[in-house]
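can u do me a favor
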């Protein structure tokens, strides 16, 4: 085999390996960046959902306290319907 061709082939392999390594690092960095952005967005969504859930619970509690008899009537009606549905089975 030709020594010059061997050296050229080795150089080509080194260049390809270096390029692959650089590309892999870039992809890895991009994946890390995307993961961090996704984590931040999920944390924001969780905070918003937690806030909304608490707010709904507060409003429901307030409504139930202000409309005690209505609330008891609704609860009794729902209980009756559920009972009837379960009895049919």
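np, heres the sequence
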């Amino acid at each position: 085999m030709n020594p010059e061709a061997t050296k050229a082939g080795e150089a080509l392999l080194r260049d390809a390996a270096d390029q692959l390594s650089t590309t892999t690092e870039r992809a890895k960095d991009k994946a890390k960046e995307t993961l961090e952005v996704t984590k931040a967005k999920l944390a924001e969504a969780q905070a918003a959902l937690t806030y909304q859930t608490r707010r709904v619970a507060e409003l429901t509690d307030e409504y139930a306290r202000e409309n005690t008899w209505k609330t008891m009537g609704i609860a009794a009606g729902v209980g009756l319907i559920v009972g009837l549905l379960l009895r049919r089975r």
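The CA atoms of residues 27 and 33 lie 10 Å apart. hope that helps!!
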